[in-house]
Design brief:
Layout lengths: L20 E2 H6 L4 H4 L11 E2 L7 H11 L5 E2 L1 H8 L13 E5 L11 E5 L6 E4 L2 E4 L1 H11 L2 H11 L8 H9 L6 H9 L7 H12 L6 E7 L5 E9 L4 E5 L3 H4 L1 H16 L3 E5 L1 H6 L1 H16 L1
Parallel strand pairs: 4-5, 10-11
Antiparallel strand pairs: 1-2, 3-4, 6-7, 8-9, 9-10
């Protein structure tokens, strides 16, 4: 019995292998239709192929940029993710890509795209070769869509490295922007300098929105001799209460776990109460978290 050898697909021209490419560009480079239909190529969006799988927002945006009109920019949550800002759940391929152009042009109609207009009242820039709305415009657009927590977490990140916007700059922009609705102003009023992570921000928002007093953020805690004991995530100096958000690495990293034990022992030795909060606590037991912190603050204020 004669078996035909398996035929190796023709190679893709080198200039098309670095980024996603359009079918039209491939045909101009001499790539056959059969090669373009080969299942070894990824099809991230209509009329576009890629030699590598699309596994993150940058790859998806690059694929869309190859097919979109040149006057389009990425906005809203997509722009925030391209800026590297926190946007809730990790990116997934089914997430829509937010694309904006000026109001005089027809909105983009493409599967997987959420179209917006209004680029004429925003500033466009580039991140990694991709056109996006500015940091300030992106904050307003994301915060305007809600929920409130999302806008606050985004704002907390913007006023910290590596973005490092001044809170006054963010405030001036929002107050001078007619398109910023009440929700954006509310989010801005809760933005604070000093939060080291999105989860720390979410913990603070939960507690403050429940009526608890504002904590100091990533603040030093000293003993009676003035020696540094710890840097606390959320600190109430008067009551000597500190809330610490613990990511999964605090559990999975044995060295970190041992350091945490020693740290909490030192805090206890100098009269501080430390409350540890996890992602599961925030998601499944927020009421209990609030009650625990409130009770400690009340007990230590009396």
């Amino acid at each position: 019995m004669h078996c035909d050898p398996v035929r190796t697909p023709d190679p893709i021209p080198p200039e098309l292998t670095e980024t996603p490419f359009t079918v039209a560009a491939a045909k101009r480079s001499g790539v056959s239709r059969a090669r373009l239909e080969n299942r070894l190529l990824t099809r991230p969006t209509y009329g576009v192929r890629s030699v590598t799988p699309v596994t993150d927002v940058v790859a998806m945006a690059s694929a869309l940029a190859a097919a979109l009109p040149k006057d389009c920019v990425f906005s809203h949550e997509t722009a925030a993710r391209l800026w590297g800002l926190p946007c809730g759940a990790p990116w997934q391929p089914h997430f829509p890509s937010h694309v904006m152009r000026v109001s005089a042009k027809a909105p983009i109609r493409r599967r997987g795209v959420r179209a917006h207009q209004g680029l004429e009242v925003r500033t466009a820039t580039e991140v990694g070769g991709l056109s996006v709305t500015s940091l300030l415009d992106t904050f307003v657009d994301v915060a305007a869509e809600g929920p409130l927590e999302t806008g606050v977490v985004l704002g907390d990140a913007l006023v910290m490295p590596p973005w490092g916007l001044l809170l006054s700059t963010l405030t001036e922009f929002v107050e001078s922007t007619p398109r910023a609705p009440y929700l954006v102003h509310t989010a801005l009023s809760l933005v604070r300098v000093g939060s080291a992570s999105p989860q720390e921000s979410r913990t603070r928002i939960l507690l403050v929105m429940a009526g608890l007093p504002e904590p100091a953020l990533n603040a030093p805690i000293f003993d009676v001799d003035g020696s540094l004991v710890a840097i606390g995530d959320l600190v109430w100096w008067e009551q000597k209460v500190v809330v610490e958000y613990e990511g999964d690495q605090h559990r999975s990293d044995r060295v970190q776990w041992q350091r945490d034990i020693a740290r909490y022992r030192r805090l206890q030795d100098v009269g501080w109460s430390a409350i540890r909060v996890s992602a599961e606590d925030l998601e499944r037991r927020p009421t209990q978290v609030v009650a625990q912190v409130r009770n400690q603050l009340r007990r230590r204020a009396s």
